[in-house]
UniProtKB/TrEMBL annotation:
Pfam family, one: DDE_Tnp_Tn3
InterPro entries: DUF4158 (IPR025296), Tn3-like_transpos (IPR047653), Tn3_Tnp_DDE_dom (IPR002513)
Keyword Repressor set for record: no
Domain Tn3 transposase DDE: 596-983
Protein name: Tn3-like element ISPa38 family transposase
Span of domain DUF4158: 5-176
NCBIfam families according to UniProt: transpos_Tn3
Keyword field: DNA recombination, DNA-binding, Transposition
Lineage: Bacteria, Bacillati, Actinomycetota, Actinomycetes, Streptosporangiales
Entry keyword tRNA processing: no
Amino acid sequence: MSTRFLSDEQVEQLRSFPDIGREELIKYFTLTPRDHAFLDAPGRGADARLGLALQLCTLPWLGFVPDDLEEVPQAALLRLASQLAVFPGALEYYAASTRKRPQTRSDHLKLVMRYLGWKTATPGGQEMKELEQFLLDRAMEHDTPSLLFYQATQHLIGARVVRPGVVTLMELVAAARAGAGSLTSEKVEHLLTGQMRGDLDRLLVQDAGLGMTRLAWLTTPAVEATTVAVKQAIEKLKFLRGIDAHSLDLSMLPRERRRFLATLGRRSTVQGLERRGERRYPILLALVAQSAVDQLDEVVALFDQAVSARESHAKAKTNEALAERAKQGEARQLLMDVILPVLADPTIPDEDVGAILRNGIGMQKLREVAAERWNPLPRDHGRLSALEASYSYLRKFTPQVLEAIDFHGGPGTADLMEAVQILRELNRVGGRKVPTSAPTSFVPARYADYLARARKSGDDTAFRHYWEMCTILALRDGLRSGDVFVPGSRRYADPGTYLYTPEQWEPRRAEFCHLVRKPAGAAEALGQVKDELHQALGDLEETLSGASPNDVGEVRLDAEGRLVIPPLSAEDIPAEAKALRDELSGMLPFVPIASLLIELDARTNFLACFTHAGGRKTTQSVELKRNILAVLIAGATNLGLTRMSEACGVSYDALAWTAEWYVREETLRDANTVLVNHHYALDLAKRFGGGTMSSSDGQRFPVRGKSLTGRDMNIHGGRVLSTTTHVSDQWSTYGTKQMVPTHREAHYALDEFLGNQTDLPIREHATDTHGATLVNFGLFDLVGKALTPRIRDLGKITLVRVDSPAATNALYPHAGPLLADRWNEDLVAGCWDDLLRMAGSLKFGEATASLIVGKWSAASRQNTLAAALKEWGRMRRTIHAARYLSDPLYRRRISRQLNKGESLHALRRDLHYAQQGTIVRPHLQDQTEQAWCLTLLTNAVITWTTEYYGMAIGELRGQGRDVPDELLSYIAPGHRENINFFGFINVDIEAELAKLIGGWRPLRPTTVTDAGTTLMLHP
């Protein structure tokens, strides 16, 4: 294993002074009175004091002292010289004297170390042994050399140990990585029996029946939920169980180590694994162990989707039948319009009614209408009957699913679990008749009549069909809500296992409550939320009492006491802001997208985030950077690697290898974080917003071919999938999620919000109605954040009160009647600690927010904790609604943020232009990586434009122009007219960097007229 994973340039940088930020300058280069006493020793001259002080401050900052002290950042030198009251040039004398007598420098460093309590890591010493153990422990968690190097430096600083040389530390990192591989093999050796080794080796052998290796077969997910796909998934699950993959216990390895090994196994070729020799076995063990869980989840997911597809088909058929029935009913309705006035007219004698109707309508028409049968519809309008037509189709895979999956039920599901067991036994023995004792309590009321009629008529076949379909549907719904779970699954596990246990939660409760500023006690929490409610209702009462029914533009009550919410008027953008925006856009240089990315990497080094999946050395050649950029552009623009190879002149094989090993979700996320953080630090970005608010919204993309994430949606003109993005108030996108377009976006709103790894201090999140569920209202508040959606038909939602109607109306005569329901505070109080435990599990990363939101949103009424969470959400929604209605500035701020997110859709569509924007990748992982490529390039455009807008503003101000700060918030950085996404894509890094002047492109020239306006001078 190579010990040199850093380039010579990087090694030199790590041996010298880096740039210093303001916070670091204040933190490390501020001398205390004790420091002054240490430095002001008798007989010590100004140059010695300055040199000694520089080492005193540098050691805690960097963990070592660079050889060339004269390279110290000028700001740090000036700050120290000012505090010591010495001339900064004294450092030159100190450097010269220590060059003549190096012992002086060594003695001073020893003095500093002794004063600060620092030590050196000598070979074989205790400090070195602790460092080696630390690196080995970290290498067991991940295998990225650069990250291990950084963690080692931070560990040494924390332990007050001087950092060894860069080469020495690289050798220690390499040794730790090798040791982690050996330790991994040692820890799993007891699992590698002769039988297991043979089973793992057979994964790499071409299977004649499959036409591929078992490894490729296992790692290729399904692309559609059909009978064949379900059966193939079950076959894979049985195969994995046949080699005991489901019972492998790899808990002796850290979770990240297991994930790394499994990822390495999925991405490696058979030849690559074979070349690893004995080292391939831990990789394959981790792969099959993870595959056993993934395959179990896939079987259940395919079962859910296949059943739901037939149910949707039945619904569509029912709707068509209802539409046809409505057409037929039109003739009867027209007859009633004629008959009823005659019957209701008291002046017409009874004996004349028949003659009048027969003569008026005509006997022929009456006979035609009477001849049409008009049977009453069942309670479900015939949907179960329509689904019964798919009974044979469902029977092709549901028996195999019931046989392969061990379903368990939670509280209130005993009858359903008994029915599943009965159905499983009927399938096993080939039974046709459902026992009379079979439970039916789980059957919805709308379907109960079908079973009752079949039982009454003695039609055992019909009863079996309806009862079995109801059982399958109830099982599907139970899996979605968590009332039914599958042991060993990740996605369909017992919801209680997603959360901290009470024992795990106890030591974390105080920290969590302090972090999110929530009381640990229910009484205090209820008191606080009631105070918030009364404050919000007081403001709403003032608004409603001050508005008359004729105040058209105000939130008001009409004459009947109904709430009227007028739409917000369009935001007035000052004409000066529009003119400034156009002017700034005209000053931006023209640039191809590849050149933009090359330039941005020179300032941010975001390409360094793309590390090899196998943990190999991270030194990136110019060719590797070029290939990574080409892959990113291919994914974002939807060109694909084949067409990208033609566009940039790099071979397809090189691009495919780069995409497989370097461009994956975690590296894309890391690179995106670098860009967002860089953008957040820009002065102009702070004029757009403080980074404290964000919004999420879905964008539909057309899909071609088979894909589990695609759905046919007439409203979007065909088959589509949805990409949900989280956008900050500074226009940067910090989160991206691929999802099925028919799923609620609310389920994923918290995922990226809580998973935000950027510097953005986001506290508030806006959505449209799709994100405004009661569960989301509750969870956002419990994790210390605020959900502030724009809700459609706000006046129709149920708001809550904490007192009787009479008492509430007495306090709030206008707002009180809007509060239609009593808040169940006893339910919340009884579950308060469990609510905190749930929120803490999300906040600390124990559980995934989308799983919790999805399960608890669909949970049955028997789930007390879910009911309490929704009750807390009802209170938070009421408070938000009261504030939203009473404060027009609050409404406009939410609307402005949502508009920012929606406006970026146009930029994404422009970037994602190839193949008419149609996604052709069938698998979720590939689609997710492509979505992150698009997000990364979107942020690159936003960041680059913000930088050059800032330069243009500086130039205008330098020309004497008045550019008010208050206009800058209207300058949206989504400008793209000067960026070329098309044509031949030349990714020539060295040539592009050579074009920059001081790292930047020149702005397009301007001239100031006598009137003080700026004109563009086009080339």
